[in-house]
Amino acid sequence: MKTFSKLLSFVLLLMLLACGDRDPQPFEESTLFLRNKGADMPIWVKGNRASDKIILYVHGGPGDCAMCYRYHLKGLETEAMVAYWDQRVAGTSSGKVDEGTLRYAQFSEDMGYAIKLLKKQYPGAKIYLLAHSFGVELSWQYLTSGTHQQEVAGLMVVNGMFSFANWLAAVREWALREAQKQGNTEAETYLQAHPVTPENAATIEWEPIYRWMYKLGGNPVSLYDDGKYLINYAFNSPNTALAQFTHGKAYSYYGNVESRRFEKGPFLKDIRIPVGLFWGVKDGVVPVEVGEATKKMLTNAPVTEVRFAESWHEPFITETDKFTRAVLDFVR
Predict the structure, then answer these.
(1) Measured between alpha carbons, how far is 304 from 326 in angstroms, rounded to an integer?
(2) Would the N or C end of the chain have less CB density within 10 A of its end CB?
């Protein structure tokens, strides 16, 4: 018995020595939790922990998810850490959230705390925002408030708007061009009869215009067309359909009131951090003309542009390798 105990001790000692000699693992796998105003929001940090750069992915929606896009963003983790943050009432976030908190100002506050939490966990790391769609609105809200630009090293804008009025006018123009090109007289008649102006953007029925854009091919690509993605989503993601797809009803005020007031155009001249404009040029959801208008507003920021000729609203799905290179080039 004593001999067995000595042998076991010797084996354990060898294992400890082997572990001690092993180089540190190069990749980070950690989960942080942000609790604020009733929301419990997870932040999954993945990627190269030897890097001093963190890409904070600001997902779209509203009410979408972060980790379900890791399937297409994982290539970024070779050279940087990527923080996948589920916003309040989105993805797998939980808690007892008052729908009255679903306002741009609150999302901006949440983002600020997410950035502080990452900086506390990874002192000295530079934070880069990678914002898509609705996430772009949140990023402009955050960066045009107070001294928040000092907290981040750069912003990558992926098919997102800075102004509701500018956006809806661009969607209507995109749909009208497509209706004429495709010979869809019903769509053309409706869109001709419903022009969008800065004066009527707050009151016009935007949903019929948006629906026509989709019917005319504004974003025909779906995540769920990829069988490998579906397997990954089911078995290698914290998200569930039950969690992700039950959030929409909470955003009625956002769609009817809050988003219609969104106008950051006059403030973009104050942006001085580097901005990358990454656009799928076929997109009808947020047409490339919105990107062109964004660039004109950024008069004091260093701006780089990358266009994805074969992509719609989510270029990281349709041109994944090119998108990965563009993001890593930006943060380098």
Answers:
(1) 10
(2) N
DSSP secondary structure letter of residue 130: E
Could you count the other beta carbons within 10 Å of the beta carbon of residue 148?
Answer: 17
Contact 46, 69 (CB under 8 A): no
**Each residue's pLDDT tens digit, 276-296:** 999 999 999 999 999 999 999
pLDDT value, residue 234: 79
Give the mean pLDDT of 106-118: 98
What pLDDT does residue 245 have? 61
Asked if the structure places residue 85 within a domain, the reply is yes
CA geometry: angle 133, 136, 142, nearest 5 deg: 155
The number of domains in the chain is 1
d(CA 315, CA 53): 22
The four Cα atoms 325, 224, 59, 257 give a dihedral, to 10 degrees, of: 140
Domain membership flag for residue 13: no
pLDDT tens for residues 221-254? 988 888 888 888 777 788 765 555 666 667 888 8
Q: List b or e across 39-61, with b for residues whose CB sees 16 or more CB atoms inside 10 angstroms.
A: bbbbbbbbbbbebebbbbbbbbb
d(CA 3, CA 91): 55
Whichever domain contains 106, its CATH number is 3.40.50.1820
Token readout for 200 is: 């009527």
Return the pLDDT at 324: 98
Is 1 within the bounds of a domain? no
Range of the structural domain that residue 60 is part of:
27-163+221-331
CA distance 131 to 239: 19
Q: How far apart are CA 218 and CA 114, in angstroms?
A: 33
